[in-house]
Amino acid sequence: MTATAEPTVEFGKARTRKEDARLITGRSRYTDAITPAGTLHISVVRSPLAHATITGIDKTAAEQAPGVVGVYTAADLGLEQVGLPCAWPITPDMKAPQRPVLATGTVHFAGEGVAVVVARSAAEARDAADLVDIEYEPLEPVLDMEAALAEGATLVHPDLGTNENATWVFDSGEAGTGASVADAISAAEADPDQVVVRRRFIQQRLIPAFMEPRSAVCDPTGEQLTIYAATQVPHILRTMTTVTLGVPESKLRVIAPDVGGGFGGKIGVLPEEMLVVALAQKLRKPVKWSETRSESLLAAHHGRDQIQDITITAKKDGTVTGLDVKLLADMGAYLGLVGPGVPILGAFMFNAIYKIPAYKFSCTNVFTTKTLTDAYRGAGRPEATFAIERIMDELAVELGRDPMELREQNWIKHEEFPFTTVCGLTYDSGNYEQATQQAMELFDYAGLRREQEERRRSGDPVQLGIGISTFTEMCGLAPSRVLGSLSYGAGGWEAASIRMLATGKVEVITGASGHGQGHETAFSQIVADQLGVPFEDVEVLHGDTQISPKGLDTYGSRSLVVGGIAIVKAADKVIAKAKKLAAHLLEASEDDIEFASGNFTVRGTDKGKSIQEIAFAAFMAHDYPEDMEPSLDSDAVYDPENFSFPHGTHLAAIEIDTETGHVDLRKYVCVDDIGNVVNPLIVEGQVHGGLAQGIAQALFEEANYDEEGTLVNGTFVDYTLPSAADLPSFDTRVVSTPATSNPLGVKGVGEAGTIASTPAIVNGVLDALRPLGVSDIGMPCTSQRVWRAIQDAKGRSTQETPIDTHSPGAGLGSIDPNNPQGEVQ
């Protein structure tokens, strides 16, 4: 038979998402919608205090409330000695206090669970939870990281003898990857032709405010325990449930149905997930928990929260000679699943796109009586990018240079790739010049600089600032051996299977479960091209450990660059099997069989068969080689050889009303290099979402605690999330220097917008205000903070020399020796 299938080219096509048909019509199935027959509901009784001794628990009134089945403490459930896992011990001597399922003896943050009420409805459980009477003896809260490390400080966990979790250090001089930072700083301090710039930056605490609150259901019916969870990590949740509760992994099935966003906030293994499993086992009934939004903001893990002390040295011609980074990172009261390692991911990115010959990074993780921190979109890389892009602007101020020219002077040129950085990572490909040139043209960089100069000259009350962020990131959490060298508690591989059905349809099983990114669409496009089958004939299955038994899930922009390549490898195996069977059926040598666009043909003839015909022949098994099984189905596990390194240039035009402090984001342009693009429509959506989150850190979001350790903005009335009305239309573009480390040439995009946008915004705000004497504003740069900074600068201006607003550095001035950190007083 002659092959007749039409060629298909899906890679690069802007297809609308398959998933959207059910998501936008309300046909989706979230965990909170899953209620097996006979389900009991739980509500967690949470501590109102940040630090206190539990002196008594009276359950009587709650137990007598309507619909209540029982009220339980950790002791009642036999869970006093059960602790939730931390999968990243960053140093051999890392302090890892037990993170209890329910507090016993002492509570360590406001919102920590102390007891759990089980009732026949969620409303009855919540009502009864209010009746549990718990007596506390308050203890001094521990809220400030520097104070927590001081001698005589109150200890969050007295048995540890310290509030220090661990200190992790990388020194290029000691590692042999670069020169000594200490020598670079000493030389710069002694040389009048060099400069030293020191700054302190604060990464405020953020809350991953996903659309769908967390939820979990455990159904003990049958031989297996089935857990439904709003999670990014169904496979990891299964393994960690075994580790925590001792349930055999073979007896656990975890299903992550449709998940409404995560951003790292659903990467953890939760006390509540363990509670529903333990209670389902105890009561032999399905048990369900769905958090309220207030619970989510209070007790779900938080992100960021670092103090960054940065020192950069450079020659007066602008050549950077050294970078020293000292971090304090707030872990909160306990360790999250990967929380201690989040700053370490950033450690390899502070050098960013620059050729920095000497680099040292030191991070001390600190316990406080706050909600724990863990991965949040970007996980360490936004913090690093913020620091290096802010300090590059500060260096431009010191040298009186255009900040873009200074960056270009120091970045890795396109002809220098592959480039091994001062951290020892090898960037495989990139072209910073191309992305930057296109961004500057789209942005009209030169025209906006002229407009800025005119506004300054005329004394316009609305000043214009131009913010720059030129960034790269390491994503595709990868390779297993590298992660092992960092003591990470898992590998970086991903698994995939392809099943060729008798009717010519294709099922793809992936361990990378999605939570809004468009996996089903993008993976279908990849398989359609690899196998030459119609896009509509591909089904992608994920998020169920019984259907997809192997996987390491979704985080760190790894779905495409790791999970997608596993799918390609599985497709290659399908083709190899099909080729053998095609040769047999076409009575030709396997060496003479060619495969293209879904068809196997005999070289030099018109004889051929489509891959669907081969799949049916394998199913029938009437005629196949003796040494071949009658199946084309194939599995693959892919462990990447390197991280991937997307990069880009982001530019922001900020207008600030100097009379009111009002901040207006007038224009935002970004050009990202993410390698080859599978689906530009999905890429644009990912970039837009990432930009919104990064801009929100710069201008809107911050988790605030009072002096007692109480979260004071624990609702969306107080915790500001931007809406579409708060943001402009973004002008986004992509360029491509394909990755050389994977066969698709892809790099990843899920976190790029968040990583790059925050410093672009803050640099733009400060660029607008430096002529007024404002050298720093803490995030978020709200209108109130901006106005106060302007007023403070006015109060100082009578004692200072007038600022030259016409210099190449746009009047940026030098460091005030009385305020070396550039902090607003």
Automatic annotation (TrEMBL):
SMART domains: Ald_Xan_dh_C. Residues 816-825 have a biased composition (Polar residues). InterPro entries: Ald_Oxase/Xan_DH_a/b, Ald_Oxase/Xan_DH_a/b_sf, Ald_Oxase/xanthine_DH-like, AldOxase/xan_DH_MoCoBD1, AldOxase/xan_DH_MoCoBD2, AldOxase/xan_DH_Mopterin-bd_sf. SUPFAM superfamilies: CO dehydrogenase molybdoprotein N-domain-like, Molybdenum cofactor-binding domain. Residues 793-825 are annotated as: Disordered. Residues 25-140 form the Aldehyde oxidase/xanthine dehydrogenase a/b hammerhead domain. Keywords: Molybdenum, Oxidoreductase. Pfam families: Ald_Xan_dh_C (PF01315), MoCoBD_1 (PF02738), MoCoBD_2 (PF20256). This is Xanthine dehydrogenase family protein molybdopterin-binding subunit. It comes from Pseudonocardia yunnanensis. The lineage of its organism: Bacteria, Bacillati, Actinomycetota, Actinomycetes, Pseudonocardiales.
